[in-house]
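A reminder before we start the practical. When you read a complex entry, don't treat the lines as separate problems. The point of joint prediction is that each chain is placed relative to the others, so the output describes one connected object in space. Small molecules and nucleic acid strands, if listed, are placed in the same frame. In the example below there are two entries. Take a minute to note the order of the lines before looking further.
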Amino acid sequence: MTDEVAPTDRPDLYEGLLTTRAIRRYLPDDIPETDLNDLLFAATRAPSGHNRQPFRFLVVRRSAATAEVRAVLTRGYQAAWASSRDEPATDDTSRKARMARTMSHFVDHIGEAPVIVFACLDQQVRHADLSAGASVFPACQNLLLAARALGYGGVMTNWHQVVEDELSPLLGLPDHVTIAATIPLGRPVGGHGAVRRLPLPQLVFEDRWGESAPWAADPPGTRYTGG
Amino acid sequence: MTDEVAPTDRPDLYEGLLTTRAIRRYLPDDIPETDLNDLLFAATRAPSGHNRQPFRFLVVRRSAATAEVRAVLTRGYQAAWASSRDEPATDDTSRKARMARTMSHFVDHIGEAPVIVFACLDQQVRHADLSAGASVFPACQNLLLAARALGYGGVMTNWHQVVEDELSPLLGLPDHVTIAATIPLGRPVGGHGAVRRLPLPQLVFEDRWGESAPWAADPPGTRYTGG
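Here is the predicted structure of the whole assembly.
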């Protein structure tokens, strides 16, 4: 029935890439500082353009000093979710309805996540373009994979944008710093496991746009987005 | 003396994150199609906003059909490198001079890389902003990590931008598709291993921008950027 992996599972690199899920519910456990250090160390091993490392990680835990940051963030996430959701019936057992309940829980509780990491981009421009993301999102992905490796989980989000004008002064962000992603982390309720995506032939082409790669095929047992 | 890991090494997930280097020199070996499939499958397991998966991977191998694409790309990379490089003396043994020789070799030979992957972003906008990168660069990082896992290596680059107006029609890219990154892949000359970054306390803050995280420290033996 379940295709989840135990949090104590120590996957090899390749398997880990296939089984890192977005984790949106967390046990109340704190993340020990040694693990936190290991998570951030792995994040910062990611590549960036010319190895200039413009990524900066601002870590927020559940201290009194961060109460306002966490309250503002929660309000922003609740507002963003309220404006984007459809309204499924609460007794709906579809995957979409389950996802909606997970999201409602997530936005109501993001402020209580054991750790919230603001992945920032420190560039001399406030409104960076797509290519600037090559110097911060690989590090975010490393952070999520390191969480998977050490028995944690998280999710990359950007609804901080709704309240960025309030958050930036609370976090003391200089003008040239943008929050690229907000990543809550904790011990997962539930677990990691194989993810659902579109069929590989829709995502991979060869030689020209839209031309199928004859060798591209999902392994047996792959599950797909939708349906 | 060497801190390189053997290409046949199968690291666990956490170790893999720490030891994936940018690989710019490739053995002439082709990448078998089964491995190519495994690489792209892992890339597409990465997260994207709302799991909408706007990433598309256009794979180019060393076929006659792709000769013009590879020639245009080489010309673009040579031009970009020529306009950005300093001129170190050829007998200079500094790390900077070695890097310059590696880059010169890289741009002259990128068209002969066993595989070139154009990581594309399929959105209804041509000039995407920073946050759009959250839906394509994690997949690029997964691709590089999968390469590490399977004994290959690659590097994320964006000098295709110099010749994008020529490349787009050759690759048949629709107006709403942008190349987010160009990633050559192959068996590494040399190997992977621990990477150099800035000291962790410069990259990680707690509670407020610029405030040090007391628990953030590099493990013993970490090597740093510069110097």
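Discuss with your neighbour: The two ends of chain A are 18 Å apart (CA to CA). What might explain this?
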